Amino acid sequence: MGAEVGRQIVASGTPVLWLPQGRGEATRRRAESAGLRAAEGLGELAESCWLIVSVCPPAAAPDVAERVAASGFTGVYAEANAISPRHARRIADLVGAAGGTVVDGGIVGPPPRSSGTTRLYLSGPDAAVERVRAVFDDTFLEAVVMSGGVGRASALKLAFASYNKLTYALAAQACALADGHGVLDELLALAHEKLPHTPLGQTGQLLSAGPRAWRWVPEMGEIAEACAAADVSDELVGAASALFARWESYKDAEGLTLDQLIAALGTAPGTA
Fold first, then answer.
1. 47 contacts 71 by C-beta, under 8 angstroms
2. What is the C-alpha separation between 118 and 107, in angstroms, rounded?
């Protein structure tokens, strides 16, 4: 996602720097393909960029924000990760105390490779929000401004993600149940006819969840935290998190099969 967001900014005519330190070879290839320029360090970003966009796994978001705050950055920090509204506000206080301005962002949709697929919701200080929105003019990433302060974009992102991610968990549970009773092929044929645009009706969608589940587990934690703040039960979210945790060993796996995903949902997790 980060590489594709950067690619859109580059395509609009604005140079983009990224931090290669501690990143793997696959990440480096994606960044180079997107036209991003490697920075020497965070200090270079803080000195030469007016905007830093944070797109990382939710669990890493606080550490990234702390490093940016410690760098002396005084520009606009777009916190575009799947974190709870409370955590977004905490980051805004942290970066703000160091002289920066935080815009709350929520990315909804796949990596922006074509028009009409992906949105970036923005909330926070009006002037800063408008500057960030303008960066994505004439790109495949549609920036949508929300009224209100930091936290609103994150709340919308997590509300949507709670539905979207849970559909994958439900599809996996249904497949495992059907497989256990010998009717998996029939279930998939039925879902393909009746629910053609869902992870159950399109197994390719479901298979894509396995390599990404390692990121979804902490995202479920952020959703649970947001539920608690709204006095909403997080029991369903907790169950989905436990299911996705069974797939964490498939991080970035290629050639994953439905049989593997189903086997991981057996009563003896970790033995698949």
1. no
2. 7
- In terms of Cα–Cα distance, which of 219, 224, 218, 207 is closest to 171? 207
CA atoms of 53 and 104, how far apart (whole Å): 10
The matching CATH number, chosen from 1.10.1040, 3.40.30, 1.20.120, 3.80.10, for 155-263 is 1.10.1040
Sign, CA torsion 135/136/139/140: positive
pLDDT of residue 252: 86
Mean of the per-residue pLDDT values for the chain? 94
Nearest to 85, CA basis, from 174, 29, 153, 25: 153
Whether the predicted model's global pTM rises above the 0.70 cut = yes
137-196, pLDDT tens digit by residue? 989 999 999 999 999 999 999 999 999 999 999 999 999 999 999 999 999 999 999 999
Which superfamily, per CATH, for 2-148? NAD(P)-binding Rossmann-like Domain (3.40.50.720)
